[in-house]
Amino acid sequence: MSDSWKPFGPYISSMDVSPATPTAAQSPVQGWEVVAAMLKELLRIEYEQLQLLREMVQSQREARQRQAMELLQWQKEHPEVVEKCRQALGSLVRVHSTLLEDLAEHVIENEEMLLESDFSLSEFVDRFGPRLHHLSAALSVLKQVSTPIPEPPSESGTDE
Length: 160
What we know:
- This protein is an all-alpha fold.
- The chain folds into 2 domains: 30-77; 79-149.
- It has helices spanning 28-77, 79-109, 111-116, 118-146.
- The chain is flat, with a radius of gyration of 33 Å.
């Protein structure tokens, strides 16, 4: 090693990079066996991943079923609230539509100002953003609460 590499001595070593010469023990068949073994290992890993995905999907399906059952039970216990939510949903949809229409008109009328002025854009976001966000959240809750959930089929098979 030259003197300029001495500080790196413990980290640098020489390595032979000449191509290896095949020995008599190695044959082309052995190379294919290695490839086949690697492919088998890849298939095994893919199978394990598929199994994990199946378990994850099943877990998500069970969670959705539990949530649906909890909501159905809540709806049965609070029918008057569900009915009021259905009534309110219609009104709130109209309010939401009006707000969206106002928003669209404002954008169409003030497009140039919104593009050119940060102040105008901030004013627009402050004016419509929170109301639209909160209104959308309220609509989402009302829809979830008031949507009829079908009863799951009974497990007994006969209802006689």
